[in-house]
Specification:
Layout (H helix, E strand, L loop, with lengths): L1 E7 L6 E6 L8 E2 L2 E3 L6 H13 L3 E12 L6 E10 L12 E7 L1 H6 L6 H7 L7
Parallel strand pairs: 1-6
Antiparallel strand pairs: 1-4, 2-3, 2-7, 5-6
Length: 131
């Protein structure tokens, strides 16, 4: 199943995360994202997903990396894109598939229950919160 994720930092270097409202991993925190709909490319899908889950508008950029989520059925093939905020002062508001949405710093991230492998993957890509 093709999916996208958005890696978004605000001007302070905090990372945008959403708390998942549905399975898999209900209640865990992750980057906003979801399935690529028929006829969408990755960039279009990531813009739509971030807007639906956080109310924020983003500009998609370079690919951060790819992850495979084999524990799910179907298997999710996720392309994560580094995105920038269209309105840097905007505040995320949970919507659609998100129970909550927030920008978190490194200390806040350490206190959250995140989806399996999220922190390690973002760390490997050099994309953890910068503060």
């Amino acid at each position: 199943m093709p999916c996208v994720g958005a890696v978004v930092h605000d001007a302070a270097g905090r990372l945008l995360l959403v708390q998942r409202a549905h399975d898999p991993d209900r209640g865990a925190w992750s980057v906003p994202g979801g399935r690529v709909e028929p006829g969408e490319d990755d960039a279009t899908a990531v813009v739509r997903e971030v807007l639906e889950e956080t109310g924020l508008r983003v500009r998609p950029g370079a690919e951060a990396g790819r992850v495979r989520v084999p524990a799910a059925s179907p298997v999710y093939e996720v392309v994560d894109l580094v995105c920038t905020l269209v309105d840097p002062g905007a505040v995320p508001v949970a919507g659609d598939d998100a129970a909550d949405a927030a920008f978190v710093d490194a200390a806040g991230l350490a206190r959250l229950r995140c989806t399996p492998g999220l922190v390690e993957t973002l760390g490997g890509w050099g994309l953890l919160p910068r503060c």
